[in-house]
Every structure is written in structure tokens, then in C-alpha cells.
């Protein structure tokens, strides 16, 4: 299936590795030009070289940190100079420290809110007018299965990402008539470095071996394993594509059936 992404211009946040990089690679493989972001310039440069060597969509990068309040303007100016405008925005952020919500330090909550919520809203607001004016746009926000079924020991992530659910749905209702869709993609346990960190944290918290924790977690997933980044990224590529024009205001799960609710 031709996803209709050839020549589209995409910005993928926090994309030097993990889910963000996977999404950037999948979109570029379909012919879109992508701007990837992150704090590690060497890692970004290596990722860009890998994407460009494949000969489909072209990649560029900008070193940026979502915790820096100047980042939204930096990204706006970089997109303007590199692309002239934007068709696809993938909002992806790192996760906050694990822990119980009842024990969360409120100063940490405030700081993570700025990084995970306010930065997403600010960056989106800068590109939305252009998308509406051109009559086409895709905004995909990567969250977590915890917004449906709260994940133990990830209280802060559950709380902050849930804020984006109401925001994304509201935006979907307000902008779809102008050809811009808003959706959310919810990963379950996908095999990234972040997942390794969480398994290690759970092992330390419970006094169990990491391998034991990982094996037990995979048994709880109906497909019996962790997901691959490519599986998640391919889902994202479809949602931001021309073929997904009637998918709007949705939360799509990519979790191997791990969420127990209907």
C-alpha cells in the first residue's frame, strides 16, 4: 500500500533512539522528509546518515532539549528554514522517573509537566496554523497504555500523559474540518532502552532478578512477548499517512493485547 507520504515534511520529537527514531525511520522509508531531534548530536548524526543511506525520504537533525524553554522556537525556526512548513508532527517525549504517585515530589511533578505536557502544546501550537491553512496535517502524540490502565510504579507518567488525552481529543474536534487530524498512539511494552530501565527498576523494587521480572511481564501479554520498535513504528506511519484520513480523535493501542479493558 502506498501511504501517500512521499514529499511530506515531518518533525519527530525525541527521536535520536527508541520509539521516536523508529517512527522517523518508518516515515522516511515511505518517502517523507524528516527532522529528528534529541540532545545527543553524535547519535542524531548517525541516525540521519542511516536513514539517508536508504535512499527514500531524507533526514535532517537539530540538537534540542525539551526541558529548555527555548526549544519550541528553535524547532519552529529550523522547520521553517529546512522545510518551509510542516505536514506531520509526532509528539514524543521521554518518560519521568518511576515511582508511586503518592510519594511524588511536587517540584518534580511541575518540572515534568513542563517537559511532557507544556512543551508538546507549545510546539503543536506553532505548527497548527500552517497545517490548517494548507488543508492537511497530522498530529500524532505518543503516550502510554497507562492512560487507559494505570501502570504500577509509574504514577507520574500515568498522570501527566492522561492530560494529553483530553488535549488531543479537544484538538481533534476543533481542527478536523480543516483537514488536520489528532490521534494518540499508546505503546505497551516495546523493546527499548526505556523498557530495560523500567524492568531494572521493578527488579530493584521487588528484590527479584531482572530476567525474572521480564519473563513474568511477557507472560502477562497475550502475544507472549515484548513488541518490536518496528511494529510500533509501522503503526505510527499509517496513522500519519494520507490513507488514515478518517482516523481522528482516537487512541490506538499497540500493546499485544496487554490492556485488559475492552
From TrEMBL:
Against Gene3D superfamilies, the record matches this protein to: NAD(P)-binding Rossmann-like Domain
Report the Pfam families cross-referenced here.
adh_short_C2
Organism of provenance? Hoeflea halophila
Q: List, alphabetically, the InterPro entries matched.
A: NAD(P)-bd_dom_sf, SDR, SDR_fam
Q: Its family? A: Belongs to the short-chain dehydrogenases/reductases (SDR) family.
> By what name is this protein known?
3-oxoacyl-[acyl-carrier protein] reductase
Amino acid at each position: 500500500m502506498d501511504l501517500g507520504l512521499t514529499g511530506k515534511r515531518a518533525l519527530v520529537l525525541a527521536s535520536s533512539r527508541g520509539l521516536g527514531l523508529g517512527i522517523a525511520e518508518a516515515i522516511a522509508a515511505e518517502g517523507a522528509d524528516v527532522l529528528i531531534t534529541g540532545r545527543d548530536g553524535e547519535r542524531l548524526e548517525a541516525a540521519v546518515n542511516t536513514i539517508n543511506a536508504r535512499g527514500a525520504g531524507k533526514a535532517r537533525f537539530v540538537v534540542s532539549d525539551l526541558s529548555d524553554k527555548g526549544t519550541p522556537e528553535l524547532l519552529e525556526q529550523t522547520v521553517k528554514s529546512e522545510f518551509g512548513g510542516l505536514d506531520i508532527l509526532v509528539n514524543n517525549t521521554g518518560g519521568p522517573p518511576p515511582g508511586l504517585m503518592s510519594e511524588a515530589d511536587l517540584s518534580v511533578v511541575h518540572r515534568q509537566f513542563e517537559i511532557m505536557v507544556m512543551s508538546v502544546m507549545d510546539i503543536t501550537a506553532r505548527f497548527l496554523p500552517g497545517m490548517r491553512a494548507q488543508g492537511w496535517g497530522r498530529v500524532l502524540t505518543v503516550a502510554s497504555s497507562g492512560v487507559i490502565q494505570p501502570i504500577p510504579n509509574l504514577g507520574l507518567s500515568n498522570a501527566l500523559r492522561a492530560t494529553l488525552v483530553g488535549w488531543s481529543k479537544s484538538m481533534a474536534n476543533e481542527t478536523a474540518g480543516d483537514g488536520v487530524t489528532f490521534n494518540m498512539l499508546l505503546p505497551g511494552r516495546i523493546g527499548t532502552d526505556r523498557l530495560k530501565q523500567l524492568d531494572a527498576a521493578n527488579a530493584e523494587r521487588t528484590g527479584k532478578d531482572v530476567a525474572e521480572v521480564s519473563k513474568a511481564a511477557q507472560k502477562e501479554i497475550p502475544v507472549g512477548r515484548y513488541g518490536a520498535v518496528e511494529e510500533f513504528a509501522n503503526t505510527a506511519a499509517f496513522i500519519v499517512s494520507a490513507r488514515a484520513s478518517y482516523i481522528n480523535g482516537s487512541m490506538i493501542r499497540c500493546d499485544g493485547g496487554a490492556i485488559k479493558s475492552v
